[in-house]
Amino acid sequence: MRVHEELGAEGLELSYPALTAFCRRQGIGQPEPIPAGRYDFAPGQEMQHDTSGHALVLDGRTRKVQTASLVLCYSRLLFFQFYPRFTRFECKHFLSEALAYAGGACAVCLIDNTHLVVLHGTGAAMEPVPEMAAFAARYGFVFRAHEKGDANRSARVERPFGFIEGNFLAGRSFRDWEDANAQARAWCERVNAQFKRHLRASPRELFAVECAHLRPLPVWVPPTYALHHRMVDVEGFVTVNTNRYSVPARLIGRRVEVRETWEGIEVFDGPRRVAEHRRQIEPTGQRSLLPEHRLPRGQKPSRRGPPAEETALLESEPQLAEYVASLKRAAGGRGTLALRRLLQMLREYPREPLLRAVRSAAHYGLYDLDRLESMVLRQIATEYFVPPCEDDGDDG
Question: Per-residue confidence at 13, pLDDT binned at 50, 70, 90?
Answer without folding.
Answer: confident
